[in-house]
């Protein structure tokens, strides 16, 4: 492929991504992530993934994009802001901001599909697959490699311009493109606000997260009927997920409300009181939250979480 084609293809992809509502599009060369493989292996060996057995699956695929897309040459990282313009009412059971609107998997997957379709229409047949938190892809590592930002002490990808309230999606394809420079600096400095404020001490040194202690793990990932009693009194009214480490991060002063209508908050999430959540029927839950990330925990999980955060 000529340099001119490579440059034109790269420009087209970035412009198209912007027109679809992505606030960042960066590209890295598809190759095995050897350093990440070592870190992931050490993390799994320490059991810091708790009951999230799926993290152990497809290890080689997680660190090698060519196993997901044969002949892969480029990993395109896309970012979509989800920061809401409104907050929940005081004293309502707290829900992570990413879950205020419609399920991000559905919203972003449709855009990835359209992006790949437009690439095929403009450039010719390209073998590619889009991923949004649904396959063994190390999105944050690829985001850092494509120049988006750095991985903070809380394990989140942080952008100097936008903070960290955004989703990451990945498009792996066999098209050779111009590659962005990796983001080389770490702007966390000596700040330890996320570590100091984590209610369950889940943030360890050296950007290691103990997933088995995270409130998001307990309220979303854990499928057990009961939550460990040792966590009693530490959830600070978080019913689904937790945003503490992001809320206290100084870089999130740059967060701006999203323009994506799919992430418009569901009114019930902003307004329902504890009593209304408790009295809700399963039928109502399924109807109101049929397009919401809350359906992942299911009605029984929400009721379990409610009981846990309200009992002494």
How would you summarize the topology of this molecule?
Layout: H1 3-19, E1 24-29, H2 34-45, H3 59-63, E2 74-81, E3 94-95, H4 104-123, E4 128-131, H5 139-145, E5 150-151, E6 157-158, E7 166-173, H6 193-197, E8 203-204, E9 208-209, H7 215-221, E10 238-240, H8 244-247, H9 267-271, H10 274-279, H11 282-288, H12 298-310
Parallel strand pairs: 3-10
Antiparallel strand pairs: 1-2, 2-7, 4-7, 5-6, 8-9
Helix pairs in contact: 1-4
Protein name: Epoxyqueuosine reductase
Cofactor: cob(II)alamin; [4Fe-4S] cluster
Function: Catalyzes the conversion of epoxyqueuosine (oQ) to queuosine (Q), which is a hypermodified base found in the wobble positions of tRNA(Asp), tRNA(Asn), tRNA(His) and tRNA(Tyr).
Describe this structure in words.
- One of its GO terms (cellular component) is cytoplasm.
- With 312 residues, the protein is α+β, with helices and mostly antiparallel strands.
- The chain has one domain (1-312).
- Helices cover 35% and strands 12% of the residues.
- It has a four-stranded antiparallel sheet, with helices on both faces. Strands 3-10 form a two-stranded parallel ribbon.
- A hairpin with a 5-residue loop joins β5 and β6 (157-158).
- The longest helix has 20 residues, at 104-123.
- The protein is globular.
């Amino acid at each position: 492929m000529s340099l001119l084609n490579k440059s034109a293809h790269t420009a087209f992809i970035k412009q198209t991504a912007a027109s679809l509502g992505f606030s960042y599009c960066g590209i890295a060369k598809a190759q095995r992530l050897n350093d990440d493989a070592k870190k992931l292996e050490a993390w799994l060996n320490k059991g810091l993934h708790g009951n999230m057995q799926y993290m152990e699956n497809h290890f080689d695929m997680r660190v090698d994009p060519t196993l997901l897309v044969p002949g892969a040459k480029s990993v395109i990282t896309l970012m979509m802001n989800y920061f809401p313009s409104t907050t929940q009412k005081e004293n309502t059971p707290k829900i992570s901001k990413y879950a205020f609107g419609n399920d991000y998997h559905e919203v972003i997957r449709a855009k990835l599909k359209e992006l790949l379709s437009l690439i095929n229409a403009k450039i010719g047949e390209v073998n590619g697959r889009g991923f949004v938190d649904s396959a063994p892809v190390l999105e944050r590592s690829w985001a850092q490699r494509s120049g988006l930002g750095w991985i903070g002490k809380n394990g989140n990808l942080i952008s100097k311009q936008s903070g960290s309230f955004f989703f990451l999606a990945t498009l792996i394809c066999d098209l050779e493109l111009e590659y962005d420079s990796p983001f080389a600096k770490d702007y966390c400095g000596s700040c330890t606000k996320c570590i100091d404020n984590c209610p369950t001490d889940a943030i360890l040194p050296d950007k290691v997260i103990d997933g088995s202690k995270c409130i998001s793990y307990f309220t979303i990932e854990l499928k057990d009927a009961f939550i460990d009693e040792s966590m009693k009194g530490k959830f600070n009214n978080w019913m689904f997920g937790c945003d503490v480490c992001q809320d206290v991060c100084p870089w999130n002063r740059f967060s701006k409300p999203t323009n994506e209508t799919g992430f418009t908050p569901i009114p019930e999430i902003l307004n329902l009181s504890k009593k209304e959540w408790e009295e809700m029927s399963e039928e109502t839950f399924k109807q109101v939250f049929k397009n919401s990330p809350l359906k992942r925990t299911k009605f029984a999980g929400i009721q379990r979480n409610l009981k846990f955060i309200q009992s002494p």
